[in-house]
Write a structure and sequence with these properties.
This protein has 259 residues and is an all-alpha fold. The protein is built from 14 helices and no strands. Helix 7 runs antiparallel to helix 8 (128-142) and helix 10 crosses helix 11. It comes from Amorphochlora amoebiformis.
């Protein structure tokens, strides 16, 4: 009986593999409905144990559907399929492809695309520095679509991983050197630099860190200004020579319209 069951399972797997190859042809056909149904069926098939790897062999065609198909619903289906078949082996390739697509993606799909990239980067991060770089890239490419859940999660991961803190502080210091950085980048950067500025004192003086943060202050929203002001206080604790400057800034903003 066990032998029969094994044989039946083998036949079942063979059928699934044949189906995968057939569906791979479907998603290359001219008819939009057939391409959509093919991607939809592949997504369902990919959830069966062991099938995601087989479907990954169709990666080139799936990526073509994501990048080039004129039908938005087909691009959405291709995105869903890539999300399902992503694993440790192909995660960097898929994440990089999705980041490239983000540069030109339709605005209707951007929020979901950003969320999926952030989830995959965290789920398959063998190196948390790579994860942080991906989140920073998301903020750079599509900052308006990076929700608080995403950027605050990045901060949590830095706080909880001591070996990431110095890299994070220096990376955000460099990122804040760009005046055009998105406000979500200012939020992440001000928090991380406020917490871990002492770790990069060999690379940047307290005065330089304060200047870099302060050049974003005037254009920030009130909520972000509050985060930045909090970072100034933390900087003054790490670099006592900044106390007079920080005191002056704080006195200037003691009476604030949003208080």
């Amino acid at each position: 009986e066990e032998g029969v069951a094994t044989l039946e399972e083998s036949k079942y797997r063979d059928h699934l593999e044949s189906m995968t190859k057939l569906l791979g042809r479907f998603i290359s056909l001219k008819e939009a409905n057939v391409r959509y149904l093919g991607l939809d069926a592949m997504t369902k098939l990919a959830r069966i144990e062991g099938m995601a790897d087989k479907i990954s062999n169709q990666m080139t065609t799936i990526l073509f559907s994501l990048r080039k198909d004129l039908d938005a619903s087909i691009r959405k289906r291709a995105l869903d399929l890539l999300f399902v078949i992503c694993n440790k082996e192909n995660s960097r390739k898929i994440t990089q492809e999705l980041l490239s697509f983000l540069k030109v993606a339709d605005y209707k799909i951007r929020e979901e695309l950003v969320l999926k990239i952030a989830i995959l980067a965290e789920r398959f991060a063998s190196d948390l520095r790579w994860y942080l770089d991906v989140v920073l890239k998301l903020i750079t490419l599509a900052g308006d679509y990076v929700t608080a859940d995403i950027w605050y999660r990045a901060i949590q991961i830095v706080i909880n991983n001591e070996n990431l803190q110095k890299y994070a502080a220096y990376t955000m210091f460099k990122a804040l050197g760009d005046r055009s950085i998105h406000e979500n980048g200012v939020k992440v950067g001000s928090y991380i630099i406020g917490e871990f500025s002492d770790l990069i004192s060999d690379k940047a003086s307290g005065n330089k860190l304060l200047q870099t943060l302060h050049m974003h202050f005037e254009t920030a929203t009130n909520r972000t200004k509050a985060l930045v002001l909090s970072s100034y206080i933390k900087l003054a604790n790490s670099f006592p020579d900044l106390i007079p400057k920080v005191k002056g800034i704080m006195e200037r903003y003691t009476v604030h319209a949003d208080e």
